[in-house]
């Protein structure tokens, strides 16, 4: 009994600022943006839905995405000790098993909020949470594959968040057109996730993570990332044009041309310019998502 008490006292409750850092607020923007695109693409009015929308944004960002970051940091604590030793868990600021407890609490709260927003949102939330755990945790640990890992992240960050936004607004399954577009943008996001892997090549090699920059080489991985992002948008443009959403198609086309103009600089030195392209090219990509959503929603 005495030994147990001493052990408990030795693992303090984490400070609020360290918990926030663990949940990585900077990563919440992509799913929150995709949620907004989903809400816009539904074409439904916000009248009487403000509380649902606010809860949906909370679900997509701080809850599901934040939980995924906690799960990832817990199961990646040995990798972070190499790549980012100042992170809350490897630095000891979140000690003991608190990283795991935070991930479990986030999972439960996320599922509860998703359930309150309707059956389709609950289904999307459960799938997203399951993928968040499978991405980082054994036995699946999808992140060890440079092909499967980015696909899982792209689907959860972009596709499921878009799906959630549309479902929150209508309380129903999104239309076929919305489902097709959100899947295409999820596929394109595979390239974005590959670019994010450039910052951890050294640690990935040492720990056996087979990211595409590790397995294909940095330059080949960058070429593939650009090709995937562009190809998905070309198909979106063609579909928008076929659906007679001409203005939306032209806007996405213009944004894609701007991305293509930025790609040569990235390809000259991917390791150096990946952060720059993530700020410039990815911004153009997500603006294209919004343009497509505005067209689907009948706003342009």
Question: Could you characterize the architecture of this molecule?
Answer:
There is one protein chain. The protein has 300 residues and is mostly helical. 77% of the residues lie in helices and 0% in strands. It has 14 helices and no strands. The longest helix has 27 residues. The N terminus is likely disordered.
Task: Give a summary of the structure in a few sentences.
With 300 residues, the protein is an all-alpha fold. Helix content is 77%, strand content 0%. The protein is globular.
Q: SS-based structural class?
A: mainly alpha
Q: Could you give the distance between the termini?
A: 68 Å
Helix content: over 70%
Number of helices: 14
Strand content: under 5%
* Radius of gyration over all CA atoms, rounded: 20 Å
Oligomer: single chain
Whole-number mean pLDDT: 93
Largest sheet: none
Element order: H for helix, E for strand: HHHHHHHHHHHHHH
**Large-scale geometry:** globular
Contiguous uncertain segments of 5+ residues: 1-8
State the total count of DSSP E strands: 0
């Amino acid at each position: 009994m005495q030994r147990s008490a001493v052990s408990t006292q030795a693992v303090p409750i984490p400070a609020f600022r360290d918990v926030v850092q663990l949940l990585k607020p900077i990563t919440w923007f992509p799913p929150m943006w995709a949620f907004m695109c989903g809400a816009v693409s539904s074409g439904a009015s916000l009248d009487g839905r403000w509380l649902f929308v606010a809860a949906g944004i909370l679900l997509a960002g701080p809850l599901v995405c934040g939980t995924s970051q906690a799960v990832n940091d817990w199961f990646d604590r040995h990798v972070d000790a190499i790549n980012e030793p100042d992170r809350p868990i490897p630095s000891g600021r979140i000690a003991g098993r608190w990283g795991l407890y935070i991930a479990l609490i986030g999972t439960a709260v996320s599922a509860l909020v998703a359930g309150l927003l309707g059956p389709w949102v609950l289904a999307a939330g459960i799938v997203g949470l399951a993928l968040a755990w499978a991405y980082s945790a054994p036995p699946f640990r999808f992140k060890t594959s440079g092909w499967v890992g980015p696909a899982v992240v792209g689907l959860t960050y972009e596709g499921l968040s878009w799906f959630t936004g549309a479902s929150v607004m209508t309380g129903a399954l999104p239309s076929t057109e919305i489902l097709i577009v959100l899947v295409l943008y999820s596929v394109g996001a595979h390239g974005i996730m590959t670019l994010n892997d450039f910052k951890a090549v050294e640690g990935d090699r040492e720990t056996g993570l087979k990211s595409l920059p590790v397995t294909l080489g940095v330059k080949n991985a960058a070429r593939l990332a650009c090709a995937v992002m562009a190809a998905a948008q070309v198909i979106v443009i063609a579909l928008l044009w076929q659906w007679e959403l001409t203005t939306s198609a032209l806007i996405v086309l213009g944004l894609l041309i701007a991305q293509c103009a930025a790609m040569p600089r990235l390809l000259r030195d991917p390791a150096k310019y990946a952060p720059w392209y993530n700020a410039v090219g990815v911004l153009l990509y997500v603006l294209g998502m919004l343009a497509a959503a505005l067209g689907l929603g009948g706003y342009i």
